[in-house]
Design a protein that fits this description.
The protein is α+β, with helices and mostly antiparallel strands and 107 residues long. 41% of the residues lie in helices and 24% in strands. The protein contains 3 helices and 5 strands; from the N terminus they run βααββββα. Strands 1-5-4-3-2 form a 5-stranded mixed beta sheet. The longest helix is centred in the middle third of the chain and has 19 residues.
């Protein structure tokens, strides 16, 4: 018996974050590095959705928002109500003041 792979989805704001990363990275670091970093982020998203990484709550005030710090960006997400994955609400550079940005993205 095979189990369905847990999935992830992006909010509109998180998708914009990724587009920003996709525009910046090749201009600054080149195509090869851009592709490698994109693959690394995708692997991170899969691992977070499968609960293979030890993410932690973002803050005491927002215990349902989880955060994982990747190399240069932090991934903020919640677990889907149906238990079948995660909703990624932000992918922000680690130097970003994330608290207000994440709070402004909550439903």
């Amino acid at each position: 018996m095979t189990s369905a792979k847990k999935r992830y989805r992006f909010t509109a704001e998180a998708a914009e974050d990724l587009l920003s990363i996709a525009r910046y990275t090749p201009k600054t670091w080149g195509i090869a590095q851009s592709r490698a970093y994109a693959a690394e982020l995708e692997k991170t998203f899969d691992s977070l959705a499968s609960k293979l990484l030890p993410a932690k709550p973002f803050s005491e005030n927002l215990p349902d928002i989880m955060v994982w710090h990747n190399k240069y960006h932090s991934v903020y997400y919640t677990y889907e109500a149906n238990g079948k994955g995660i909703a990624i609400i932000a992918v922000l550079h680690q130097k970003t003041d994330s608290r207000q940005k994440v709070e402004n993205r909550l439903p």
